[in-house]
Specification:
Structural class: mainly alpha
Strand content: under 5%
Distance between the termini: 55 Å
Number of helices: 2
Shape: rod-shaped
Number of strands: 0
Order of helices and strands: HH
């Protein structure tokens, strides 16, 4: 994660130098790399959120099983 942040910071600081190389060349490179980094960051955050949800589900099931409670109660059936 630190590597992604440092690369992002480097690209922000290097943008004026890349823009000096030629019109349109530097901005396109920076925008492409930043887009790829943003996509990777969103992918990692999404995986972390899914894993957090699965961990919460597992903890809930272990809690209810260890305390002897039922997850839900049905009052009556028709």
């Amino acid at each position: 994660m630190l590597f992604v942040f440092l690369l992002f910071l480097f690209l922000i600081l290097a943008e004026p130098a890349l823009a000096y190389v030629g019109p349109g060349l530097g901005a396109g490179v920076v925008a492409t790399v930043l887009g790829i980094l943003l996509g990777l960051l969103m992918l990692v955050v999404g995986v972390q959120l899914v894993m957090t949800g699965l961990l919460g589900e597992l903890m809930m099931r272990v809690y209810f099983e260890s305390s002897g409670r039922k997850t839900y109660a049905v009052r009556e059936t028709c």
